[in-house]
Amino acid sequence: MHAPHNFLSDWRHHALNLQNQIKSVVIGLDETIEKITIALFARGHVMLEGDVGVGKTTLLRAVAKTIGGAYERIEGTIDLMPNDLIYHTYIDQSGKPKVDPGPLLRHGKDLSVFFFNEVNRARPQVHSLLLRVMAERSVSAFNREYNFPYLQVFADRNRVEKEETFEMPSAARDRFLMELHIEAPQDSTLRKRLMFEPRFHDVDELIGQLQSDIVPFQEIESISKIIQQHVRTTETLQEYALNLWQATQTPQAYGVKIDDVDMNHLVLAGASPRGMSMLLRAAKVKAWLENREALYPEDIRYIFHDVISHRIFFTPVFEMRRESLTKALTQGILNQVATP
User: What average pLDDT does this structure show over 165-184?
Assistant: First the structure.
């Protein structure tokens, strides 16, 4: 049995190899890939936002290939019902009704990546089922309980079209460790590669080039627990994290200012205890990926916006400006709370 340090060092090597493999087929999204790697080892689900065709599906298929296990995807539509995730009914060639497992049950415990595309097109009843799957990694069907111990849920929210959409309730959004915005690369060289290199035009062939099981999906849960136990937090760092938490609730008390905003009436509710717990879990993984045994402020700062922004709720008058205000608020908190 390896000592914990050597054991984690070996797995860190595998995690960095996983990142590099994905970066070889999904270009221009290096930071997103690193944050998804953090989410994998922090055992947190991820919400993705981005325009059509920026590579979200390719990215998640690459993640599934490099960790092994089964990949499933479902499209959110207004007529989608919870049962559509669990089973599929049809008439076979002999004219008899048949029931087959749906995308959640099809692979049983081998399901490692589940991608719910345009989740806000689905009805609240579907959100409710997804919430249970995310929180408990289980679902009841056919008079029995199905468990998904290795499941990682990714969802995409359509942020452009608002007709026939249903916003996810705050309780459901809080179940996502991170919300990541994905854009097409701005670098001209990368854009030319995406346009003119044939290898990027065939996604199946592209994914087929990846090494599988670099970090076996069955092992990630146990590795995650060891990382959380191994990375230390000092008393000073704990005070810093506490101040960040309090600043999400009363930013004006820390001198945070945003132009044309009454800071005394901006925040309705700050980050929850669960949200801060998730922040620290993710930050410890970042420290581990940086080959450190102690948590540093920069580990928290690196993922602060992605983990916390969707957990801060504004008063109704400011909620319509959420997209611009959350970035300004989280950056203002990082600027104003003294870094040790």
Answer: 84
CA–CA separation, 142 vs 146, rounded Å?
9
Q: Of 17, 16, 38, nearest to 227 (Cα)?
A: 38
Mean pLDDT of 29-52: 93
Alpha helices in 27-123 (DSSP H): 30-42, 56-67, 82-86
Measure the CA–CA gap between 4 and 122, rounded to whole angstroms.
Answer: 44
Domains and CATH numbers, the chain: 4-77+108-210 (3.40.50.300), 231-336 (1.10.8.80)
pLDDT tens by residue, 76-133: 999 999 999 998 888 888 888 888 889 999 999 999 999 999 998 999 999 999 999 9
Interval 50-86: pLDDT, tens: 777 778 889 999 999 999 999 999 999 999 999 999 9
- Mark out the alpha helices in 290-321 (DSSP H runs): 297-308, 316-319
Cβ within 8 Å of residue 273, ≥6 positions away: none
